[in-house]
Design brief:
Blueprint lengths: L3 H6 L8 H13 L3 H6 L7 H15 L4 H5 L1 E4 L2 E4 L11 H10 L7 E5 L5 H9 L4 E6 L2 H14 L4 E4 L11 E6 L21 H4 L7 H13 E10 L5 H10 L2 E8 L5 E8 L1
Parallel strand pairs: 3-4, 3-6, 4-5, 6-7
Antiparallel strand pairs: 1-2, 7-9, 8-9
Helix pairs in contact: 2-4, 6-7
The chain binds S-adenosylmethionine.
């Protein structure tokens, strides 16, 4: 039987993150935290667990995202279940959550996360603002199943509904719409690399310029927001000016964009007066 240290030293995963990914996969197979790998490096690993780990390494070498292999990704310090029907939540989306939490909204604000996927944005907001009335919607029933699992595991109160963007929401009912929609242009070469190859197309791609969903969301949000309501949108690295332009044309004011950790404008929003 190989020890933990031996199994980790022959992971064969490429890049700077290879060793870390191997550790995450081995922790998953052993059902132990990462600290265990260091405190029990000489511990032999039983053949069943070693074989499960080797199969996962092979799938990872073939490109399968680590989050799909272990079935979860951390977002806003919440362990969220993910699968092939959901986008893997990204750190830049936490910038949108932070902005939403800073808005001058009523204590019992009515807030919706459109295109919720695993439930990431809505559940992060629910964990911080238990008095907000949160709704999370998606066109994908399979994604909503994952959001439902996360909602139940975390014990958070969020209403889930299937909806084509704003279609299921009543006029003048919301104080805030937050959305991380699909925003990659059709044929973008990034779609052929990394995790994007394995994520659902409907979560990523949105028309020739990547802005089809954003145009729809802005159009749908106008009647659904209350006067003074806010719309916050995540978008691509080169779309901030275009999104602010679309928001302005639809009557939004107080337009602004927020940057991600790399200093790139990735979230834009405004207030409907
Ligand atoms: C980029 S993913 C974001 C998922 C999640 N909010 C996150 O940040 O991890 C976009 C989501 O929009 C959903 N979506 C695509 N088209 C939609 C539509 N017409 N109406 C509602 N949701 C849609 C997809 O199913 C996907 O879950």
């Amino acid at each position: 039987m190989n020890s933990i240290r031996e199994l980790l030293s022959h992971h064969g995963l490429p890049g700077d993150s290879g060793r870390l990914e191997a550790e995450v996969l081995l922790c998953h197979c052993l059902d132990k935290p990462r600290s265990y790998l260091y405190s029990h490096g000489e511990q032999p690993v039983c053949p069943e667990q070693a074989s499960a780990y080797e199969s996962m390494l092979a799938e990872r070498r073939a490109g399968q995202p680590v989050a799909y292999l272990v079935g979860q990704r951390e977002f806003w310090s919440l362990a969220l279940a993910v699968n092939e029907h959901t986008l893997i939540p990204r750190p830049e989306t936490e910038t949108l959550v932070m902005w939403a939490l800073e808005l001058p909204l009523p204590t019992n604000a009515a807030v919706a996360d459109w295109g919720t996927g695993s439930g990431a944005i809505a559940l992060a907001l629910a964990s911080e603002r238990p008095h907000w009335q949160l709704a999370a919607s998606d066109a994908s029933a399979a994604a909503l199943d994952v959001a439902d699992l996360n909602r139940r595991r975390l014990g958070l109160t969020v209403r889930l509904l299937q909806s084509d963007w704003g279609a299921a929401f009543a006029a003048g009912s919301l104080d805030l719409v937050a959305s991380n929609p699909p925003y990659v242009a059709e044929g973008d070469p990034h779609l052929e690399a990394g995790d994007l190859l394995f994520e659902p197309n409907a979560a990523l791609v949105s028309g020739r310029d990547g802005l089809d969903a954003i145009r729809r969301i802005i159009e749908d949000a106008v009647p659904v927001l209350k006067p003074g309501g806010w719309l916050l949108l995540e978008h691509g690295y080169d779309q901030a000016a275009a999104v602010r332009g679309l928001l302005q044309a639809a009557g939004f004011s107080q337009l602004a964009s927020r940057t991600d950790l790399a200093g790139i404008e990735r979230i834009s929003g405004g207030c409907l007066v």
